[in-house]
Amino acid sequence: MSNLPVEPEFEQAYNELVSTLEASSLFEKHPEYRTGLKVVSIPERVIQFRVVWEDDKGELQVNRGFRVQFNSALGPFKGGLRFHPSVNLSILKFLGFEQIFKNALTGLSMGGGKGGSDFDPKSRSDNEIRRFCQSFMRELSKHIGADTDVPAGDIGVGGREIGYLFGAYKNYKNIWEGVLTGKGGSWGGSLIRPEATGYGLVYYVNHMIQYRTKGAESFTGKRVAISGSGNVAQYAALKVIELGGDVISLSDSKGAIVLAEGVKSFSKEDVDKIASLKLKHGYLHQLHASDSEFSSKFQYVEGARPWLKVGQVDVALPSATQNEVSAEEAEGLIAAGCQYIAEGSNMGSTQGAIDVFEANRKEGGQIWYAPGKAANMGGVAVSGLEMAQNSARVSWTFEEVDAKLADIMETGFKVCLDTAKEYIPAKETELPSLVGGANIAGFVKVIEAMHNHGDWF
């Protein structure tokens, strides 16, 4: 294996999956699944290409473009496109690998993939972004299609970028098809798509709370720490507020916003201000410095994540990026009374943090951890619903999509729960391992389909 490049993010995702499979009775009951693991861990296809485009000064620029088509056993490759300077093959392989099993847990017919570029849209004009998207799609269009690979948005790829990408695809291929999700509502998009990951995250945690308390508790009165301030964090915060919880933090790459003394919660209006700021690619410190009403309610903590800055906390929802909760912060959350942590981001916790959470759970402690591949699958679930609407040339109402999303999150929670009970030995006082249940359930579904296709034997 020494001839392979070092890929720390992908290796972390792989090791996290394997550690839970090994700790269960899965390989004891099905030793042949070890062969399936070898196959599923290698992408079906990795596409890498150059993206040459012209900036507003007429100067040539070049970026790297990628698409990792990881697994199509359950349906077309499905996963987002990320435009960010940090993008590299290791990150995209980790995201694509996670996406395989996340998509499997939705119960919808979707494979797993991921793609993007090291292009940074934050520093570019609308015209530059349009020209970049057109050049990026010129190559990507050769490898995707409604029944082959259906990308979506991710960090740096919102409604504007999806529109430019879709228009370029339509022009290059001379076909209108549901090749991208996250489209505008008037041209094939689904209602609830912007809200889906955040809403689904909160629905999943609500099932955790109700299962643990036998229906006696909900989000009402819970202190909820959230990281991030993009779509996932914003809509998770709004849903928590709607369900009676108190949102006590948000953050971005520059620092965290936490409640000032005597303030109970962010309000819907506070979240709306942050949403407006983020549409303009602003930072939280700018809002804190320019809006006296806002700054009177919140403290800004420069260069920090919120986990050790919020005092007592009941629920933690990492919703920014990978590895945003360390082992030290995990210990701090437990000391602060946190009972539930669920990832709105992909691989939001380091392996050290997961080990802390799982050790506490095994000891009969208070914290219960849900991994991103289960807790944040609401976004891709509604992308799958958008694909279904495009195929049938229909549009569903907000209420219809929201109800389907809620059902998918409930089913996904129960699958994780039941699988953990079946394969992971536990004492009577232990809560089931949701990370183990999610990994095993997604893995088994995918490799059984691959076996049926003759991809391993």
TrEMBL record:
<keyword id="KW-0520">NAD</keyword>
<dbReference type="InterPro" id="IPR006096">
    <property type="entry name" value="Glu/Leu/Phe/Val/Trp_DH_C"/>
</dbReference>
<dbReference type="InterPro" id="IPR006095">
    <property type="entry name" value="Glu/Leu/Phe/Val/Trp_DH"/>
</dbReference>
<feature type="binding site">
    <location>
        <position position="99"/>
    </location>
    <ligand>
        <name>substrate</name>
    </ligand>
</feature>
<comment type="subunit">
    <text>Homohexamer.</text>
</comment>
<dbReference type="InterPro" id="IPR036291">
    <property type="entry name" value="NAD(P)-bd_dom_sf"/>
</dbReference>
<keyword id="KW-0560">Oxidoreductase</keyword>
<feature type="binding site">
    <location>
        <position position="78"/>
    </location>
    <ligand>
        <name>substrate</name>
    </ligand>
</feature>
<dbReference type="GO" id="GO:0000166">
    <property type="term" value="F:nucleotide binding"/>
</dbReference>
<dbReference type="InterPro" id="IPR014362">
    <property type="entry name" value="Glu_DH"/>
</dbReference>
<feature type="binding site">
    <location>
        <position position="197"/>
    </location>
    <ligand>
        <name>NAD(+)</name>
    </ligand>
</feature>
<dbReference type="Pfam" id="PF02812">
    <property type="entry name" value="ELFV_dehydrog_N"/>
</dbReference>
<dbReference type="GO" id="GO:0005829">
    <property type="term" value="C:cytosol"/>
</dbReference>
<dbReference type="InterPro" id="IPR050724">
    <property type="entry name" value="Glu_Leu_Phe_Val_DH"/>
</dbReference>
<keyword id="KW-0521">NADP</keyword>
<protein>
    <recommendedName>
        <fullName>Glutamate dehydrogenase</fullName>
    </recommendedName>
</protein>
<dbReference type="InterPro" id="IPR006097">
    <property type="entry name" value="Glu/Leu/Phe/Val/Trp_DH_dimer"/>
</dbReference>
<feature type="domain" description="Glutamate/phenylalanine/leucine/valine/L-tryptophan dehydrogenase C-terminal">
    <location>
        <begin position="190"/>
        <end position="454"/>
    </location>
</feature>
<dbReference type="Pfam" id="PF00208">
    <property type="entry name" value="ELFV_dehydrog"/>
</dbReference>
<feature type="binding site">
    <location>
        <position position="153"/>
    </location>
    <ligand>
        <name>substrate</name>
    </ligand>
</feature>
<dbReference type="GO" id="GO:0006537">
    <property type="term" value="P:glutamate biosynthetic process"/>
</dbReference>
<dbReference type="InterPro" id="IPR046346">
    <property type="entry name" value="Aminoacid_DH-like_N_sf"/>
</dbReference>
<feature type="binding site">
    <location>
        <position position="383"/>
    </location>
    <ligand>
        <name>substrate</name>
    </ligand>
</feature>
<comment type="similarity">
    <text>Belongs to the Glu/Leu/Phe/Val dehydrogenases family.</text>
</comment>
<keyword id="KW-0547">Nucleotide-binding</keyword>
<dbReference type="GO" id="GO:0004354">
    <property type="term" value="F:glutamate dehydrogenase (NADP+) activity"/>
</dbReference>
<dbReference type="InterPro" id="IPR033524">
    <property type="entry name" value="Glu/Leu/Phe/Val_DH_AS"/>
</dbReference>
<feature type="binding site">
    <location>
        <position position="102"/>
    </location>
    <ligand>
        <name>substrate</name>
    </ligand>
</feature>
<feature type="binding site">
    <location>
        <position position="231"/>
    </location>
    <ligand>
        <name>NAD(+)</name>
    </ligand>
</feature>
<feature type="active site" description="Proton donor">
    <location>
        <position position="114"/>
    </location>
</feature>
<feature type="site" description="Important for catalysis">
    <location>
        <position position="154"/>
    </location>
</feature>
